[in-house]
Amino acid sequence: MLAYYDSTNQISSYKMGLDLAHLLDENMKHHDQLIILCIGSDRSTGDSLGPLVGHNLCKYNLNNVFVYGTLKEPVHASNIQNVIDMIYDNFENPFILAIDASLGTRSHVGYYTLGQGPLIPGLGVNRSLPEIGDIHITGIVNYSGLFDGMLLQTTRLSSVMTLADTISTGIIIGIRHCSHAAIENYA
User: Which pTM does this prediction carry?
Assistant: First the structure.
């Protein structure tokens, strides 16, 4: 399953949230904690989607939901393996929702995806990083083409902020509608 959502459509957060709740209910059955791993760097506009989502989510009191990757403490290429190791060392049976920026076609810029299985961070800029996540969300911040690294540097902050706000809202809606015992008591 891979679903696309338009960040400029006001109803997309709600639709994604319901789809996320369904994925959590279906796939978290044998997991104890929900880990939200927001990947990216605050030093590149296009790559800041993950830390912005993490920053937004930390404003909520999420019971038994753990957020890694914020503006203050980003999870990026240099430390991702250490963070993944730390998660598996500290949590018995984590369920990981991985979030990252991505590049796509011009027609998909401003969309975000929700899918099952891991994502491979750094793929759009030819970085070899470990795949991570039981489910994933990617925000398409710019189009793919020549000089993909430069495209991330010149991505409009407004587009990334819209994606981050819409994704964050969808995640909160998903958690609120999830019936999994570990996270159903959202505060």
Answer: 0.92
- Give tens-digit pLDDT for 86-102: 999 999 999 999 999 99
DSSP states of the chain: -EEEEETTSTTHHHHHHHHHHHHHHHH-TT-SEEEEEEB--TTSTGGGHHHHHHHHHTTS--TTEEEE--SSS-B-TTTHHHHHHHHHHH-SSEEEEEEEEEEE-GGGTTEEEEEES-B-TTGGGT-----B-SEEEEEEEEE--TTHHHHHHT--HHHHHHHHHHHHHHHHHHHHH---TTTSS--
| Core vs surface per residue 70-102: b (16+ CB within 10 A) or e | bbeebbbbeebeebbeebeeebeebbbbbbbbb
Stretch 145-164: mean pLDDT: 77
Taking the C-alpha atoms of residue 81 and residue 139, their distance in angstroms, rounded to an integer, is: 22
Dihedral, CA of residue 139, residue 21, residue 66 and residue 38, to nearest 10: -10
By the 8 A CB rule, do 104 and 111 touch? yes
